[in-house]
Amino acid sequence: MFGYSGGAFATEWATEKRAWYARDLPIVGAVMGAPPPNVVKTYHNANNGKLAELNVAAVLGVMSAFPKVDKFIRDDFIDEEAKKLFLSPLTKCSLTCGEITQGLAGANISSFFKQGDYFLEEFKGTLEDIGVMGRNITWKNKPWYPLMIFNGDKDEITKPIEDTAELVRKWRRRTWTRVRHITLAGLDHTGGILGLPRAWLWIDNRFANVERKWPVEGGPEDDGDEIIEDPEDEMSRIEAQMILGPSHEL
User: Fold this and answer.
1) What is the domain count for the chain?
2) Which terms in the Gene Ontology molecular function aspect does this entry carry (predicted)?
């Protein structure tokens, strides 16, 4: 499995829940790039920033899954104009980057509502149940495949980075899952995609069943941590290696 940002959110949750609904599904590994460990923190991080429109997509997603949230949000818009703009993605068949809603970079998404961001408090329990990673990580839910998690140390959307580090620790300590954690120095949320070549090679090696230098089962003492100081140079090097074939060094 693989996902970046929101896709990493889905990948991580699928890994937490796999033992409950897809234990027999053959999975060789999971990669999570810039996973958002806590959706409420992510909302506050994104709001008023260049990626503020992500909050629109996130709220619309929760609305579609929970009728009570949908009704609350629809009743709370400050006016019809705000309602039309916020709900506009629902009228589109497909979206490209920057087209979730037009012109919302730097916007205060909470200003669309009479009660601001009160919905975060009103539905706190729901948002914690569906939006806080790590709550289902137990030995009983051990995935039985390795994980790779990567993120920029300046990620403004998923900060604080300590939350991601804590997620890694939970997987290692509670399930003894082998986790490769890569931190990309100096990169923010969008810049973190420079970790993709390393992720692709890791995936390629997993499918090729390449022997790894760290233990198959892993454990609390098996860090598997790495800080990449020059991500752009690393990306070029990995892309060259991908052309030549899987590397036993990665």
Assistant:
1) 2
2) triacylglycerol lipase activity
